[in-house]
Amino acid sequence: MKDMGKKQIGAFVSALAISLCAGLPSQAQMGGNQSGGSSNSGATAGATSSGNLAAAAAVQQQLSQPGPSVTPADSSDPTFRGSLVTGKAMPGVMPLTLDEAIQRGLRSNLGLILQSSQEKSANGQRLQQLQRLLPTVTGSASYTVEQINLAAYGLTFPGLKPIVGPFQVFDFRAYLTQNLVNLQALQSYISAKHNFEASKLTAQDARDLVVLTVGNVYLLCVADAARIESVKADLATSKVSLDQATAEHDAGTSPRLDVLRSQVDYQNEQQNLIATSNQYEKDKLALARTIGLPLDQQFSLTDTTPFVALDAPDPEVAFQQALKTRKDLASSVQQVEAAKADKKSAVYEQLPTASVSGDFGDLGTTPAHSHGTYTATGQISAPILQIAKTRGDKEVAAAQLDQALARQSDQIQQVNADVRDAILDIQSSAKLVDATKSNVDLAREALSEAQERYKAGVADSLPVSQALSADEQANDQYISALYQHNMAKLALARALGVASTNYKDYLGGK
Description:
By secondary structure, this protein is an alpha+beta fold. The chain has twelve helices and six strands.
């Protein structure tokens, strides 16, 4: 019975390796991290021996892409991967939690800073348009010395010298202009006001993008750290196998091939450790760039973000919530209103405008010998012949309104897709976490069984090498599944427009 159980476990090792190689997402799908584990040639050779194995591989393939991409589409703007660095590196190793990283990103991330600058620019344009509706008052003071030759103007008077002066004039004056009726200027101001509101909402939405970007890079670093620990454990296991093969070869009970195979496994694990450690340091540099840390600052990650299940909401209910909370949708509404105001402004170009202007001042040869003077003017003006300009402005404004409406409609559908994608990612990645966790346990059991068989002399080191590869890949895919599940929850928070305020509720579960 014991031998029968060993045969069954040996067959299971091959089946497990095939299912891992065929269906689970590779480490490259986590963002370019180094792939762990050597190829499993022995398991591949038996891939055609069973229709059940092919069915298992097909099931795994359905779960092969459960999570969002490493660089979410919403944060693909490269400015969100940069920051403004303030201060210098502190001595020692700084502990860094996910919350601290996000708060630093919200203060220093370049994308958010640039969006805030655009908000200020939009406010400035709003004030510029507002001034056209407000009174404009200017003041001046002048001192003039003049001598006039009347003869040069054809003025001659008997007994009067043609040269007048020199004489001086002091003039202190204030000027006032005010539009009384100017519908075009009014609509231009309304458009600028809506653009300013849209810019404010876009800046608020950028906070969600910062949380998504920082959270993504932090979770990548967490996955890298977990992978390093996994590779170290496999390295220790392969070292035990190498020592065992060497000792048995020296005792004359094992061929040289077993030693060479174990040595190759051990050196592969060393290479994997070097590559994984290098990727970890590179991802830490990317995290520092995102949150404004000096690149020479040493820090360690204190949050491991383990698996916490999240009950996915109903897609339609979540979509309706997103329509109310997504700041980018509210911004698109304001942009549509601005385009409507621009269209009205183009129509009102051909209407008359009414304005008043005037000045009041003190005029005289000296400040002590002066008298008050003033001028008041009311004016109505209207364009008479500018048909091409008026028609062109109308067509441009109408086209811009059509574009704004089309973008708004598409953005609503994109939000709907974002919500549904995130919910599907959460559900499928949760299943993948369960599947890969089970595979890890089974792969470890298979590795232990293969080592016992090799130690007992029942088999050579080939099953050990294959089981070691399967164990490493199972761990790698489990880490990948955890990362994808956490990113899916963070993506749902962003899809609902609450990432910057409620991301803890989603990463920690509800």
